[in-house]
Amino acid sequence: MLEWWDGFWAIYSSVIFGIGINAMLALSIYLTLSCGLLSLANAAFMGIGAYAAAMISMQTNLSFPIALLASAMTPALVALAIGMPTLRLSGVYLAMATLGFGEVVRVIVLNLDITGGPMGLNGIPQKTEWWHIALLLGITLFTLARMRRSKVGRAFEAIKEDEIAARLMGINVARYKLLAFVLGAVIAGVAGGLNAHYTFTIGPANYGFENAVDILTMAVFGGTSNLFGPLLGSFTLSVLPELMSWLKDFRLAANGLILIIVILYLPKGICDTTRLRTWRRRLDTNSSVKVQ
């Protein structure tokens, strides 16, 4: 039994670790979307957290928890600095501004000697264990679930539904938007720190435009109406490439086709509770008609 588990873990441990990291990233974008913010900066925040944690582990004798704390605080401070002027924008304009920020971060990292330039950082100590990811993912889920039912969560929902009406009700829209933006950066930064200490190496290419789109896709694919949606989306899009490895060169095309089908028939994600309730009512109605 132990031999079977050791063999399974040796083959699929990277996939399992990837699912956990992607779940945290999907939750980070879920948090910003829950306040109506279409941000593409989470990949950049992940990179900032990854580099901050990696440099602490490689250049100091500080412990791994300190490195993870830096991976949370560094992108939080950056998000606080850029969020104040940027969050006055909305919709596609905010997406373009945060996308530009991500490119600025990538170019800066690409040209700094301390970050290893184009080669990135190699030889990062492998300190991330499976329980680190499980624990931090659990804390993230617990915090977001409590927040969803709190005054803050209700304010986020009100801003998402109608920003003008929320402001008229006395909600400090700017403050709550900034809070969502900073907390999303914290979650993405911690995911970056965990990932850096598992993969041994990081580089500027790991946190570019494609990664920002992947993070957004995982959340939207699963659905952002509840916390289970981003988890389901991250799990599906992490496992799907492995399940379709037999397609070889056609794997990416198959992934794209599946995404298109989901968008066409489930525009609010595969975990759209409203659509699922409607389907269940129809099934119950058809079943009762057949019985009669």
For the biggest sheet, the summary is: none
Radius of gyration of CA atoms, rounded to a whole number: 20 Å
The amount of beta strand, in percent, is under 5%
Overall 3D form: globular
Structural class: mainly alpha
Query: Number of DSSP strands?
Result: 0
The residue ranges in which pLDDT falls below 50 over 5 or more consecutive positions are none
The total count of helices amounts to 12
Amount of helix: over 70%
Q: Terminal Cα separation, in Å? A: 51 Å
Could you describe the 3D structure shown?
This protein has 292 residues and is mostly helical. 76% of the residues lie in helices and 0% in strands. Helix 1 crosses helix 9. The protein is globular, with a radius of gyration of 20 Å.
Structural features:
292 residues, mainly alpha, 12 helices, globular
SSE inventory with pairings:
Layout lengths: L1 H32 L8 H18 L4 H23 L4 H21 L18 H19 L2 H11 L1 H6 L4 H27 L9 H14 L5 H16 L7 H15 L7 H19 L1
Concise synopsis of the structure shown:
This protein has 292 residues and is mainly alpha-helical. The chain contains twelve helices and no strands.
